[in-house]
Automatic annotation (TrEMBL):
Pfam families, A to Z: TauE (PF01925)
Similarity-based family: Belongs to the 4-toluene sulfonate uptake permease (TSUP) (TC 2.A.102) family.
Main location as per UniProt: membrane
Name of the featured protein: Probable membrane transporter protein
Species per Swiss-Prot/TrEMBL record: Streptococcus danieliae
Lineage: superkingdom: Bacteria
Taxon lineage: Bacteria, Bacillati, Bacillota, Bacilli, Lactobacillales
Coiled coil: none
One Gene Ontology cellular component annotation held by this UniProt entry: plasma membrane
Length: 280
């Protein structure tokens, strides 16, 4: 019974942070399961994949109701992520994974630094300076708005640098296949830093995208009998509860606070990737 309560609590924490930051929750679950609880990394990977589905399911409807989830943007960028995942699978036998883990870790450190600079410089609500004065049809179709309940402001946004953002989504797919990670941080940073989208929209949209791409992996592991139901079931229940709570809190949380959380998670991610690259 105690073990069940621990798994539920871990799931709630992972779902809460995963839904707020668009990371799926795996980055929280993996170190807890492997380092703190001593489970094998293969078990942690399977649990993380199902946690991503739980986070996406628990938060998608609320984010859609609050206009934070941009479905058109998600499905457009998902094309490039899927292609990248296919290319990554083809390259998996040719590229040395250790080096890629170190490279990914260094990238996370750099992104934490750039996001910290955003915190110190203040939040800008209208991030459209890189967009054309006369938006293209694609830009218009990927634009949107939402009501920020924390500031009581109507936030209008328009996607900028779409080709570069699409290319980074392609790289996120490659990284996901090569390293066995969700690459949620990659996706959020591509939308936030490159495409000039609000962080809340980026996080909500990345959550949905990770859920879409995680379905095929979940089906595969389930068909192979690799799912440890006594572990997965309570954690996923906790994840759904945590992500539902996170999706209700997101519209009311100041963006600066979300960025601070994101910096901390990026640093943890960077350390994890770096240690895995060094064989730790």
């Amino acid at each position: 019974m105690l073990e069940f309560a621990i798994f539920i609590s871990i799931g709630i924490l992972a779902g809460l942070l995963g839904s707020l930051l668009g990371l799926g929750g795996g980055i929280i679950l993996t170190p807890i399961l492997t380092i703190a609880l001593g489970y094998d990394i293969k078990v942690a990977v399977v649990v993380s994949i199902f946690a991503v589905l739980g986070t996406s399911a628990g938060s998608a409807l609320a984010y859609l109701e609050d206009d934070l989830l941009n479905l058109r943007l998600a499905m457009y960028l998902e094309i490039f992520t899927t292609i990248g995942a296919f290319v990554g699978a083809l390259l998996s036998t040719l590229v040395q994974g250790q080096f890629l883990f170190i490279l990914y870790g260094l990238l996370m450190f750099y992104q934490a630094y750039t996001m910290w600079k955003k915190i110190r410089g203040g939040e800008t609500h209208h991030l459209q300076s890189a967009a054309a004065k006369e938006p293209s049809l694609l830009q218009e179709s990927l634009s949107g708005s939402y009501q920020d309940l924390g500031t009581q402001m109507e936030i209008h946004y328009q996607a900028a640098n779409i080709p570069l953002g699409s290319f980074i989504m392609f790289l996120a797919g490659v990284a996901s296949a090569l390293l066995g990670i969700g690459a949620g941080a990659f996706k959020v940073l591509a939308m936030d830093n490159v495409m000039g989208l609000p962080l809340k929209v980026s996080s909500a949209t990345a959550n949905f995208m990770m859920g879409v791409t995680g379905v095929s992996s979940a089906i595969f592991y389930f068909s192979q009998g690799s799912v440890e139901l006594p572990i997965v079931a309570p954690i996923v229940l906790g994840v759904i509860a945590g992500s539902t709570l996170g999706s209700r809190l997101m519209p009311r949380i100041p963006v600066a606070f979300l960025r601070i959380l994101f910096v901390l998670v990026l640093l943890v991610t960077g350390v994890q990737m770096f240690l895995r690259g060094l064989g730790g």
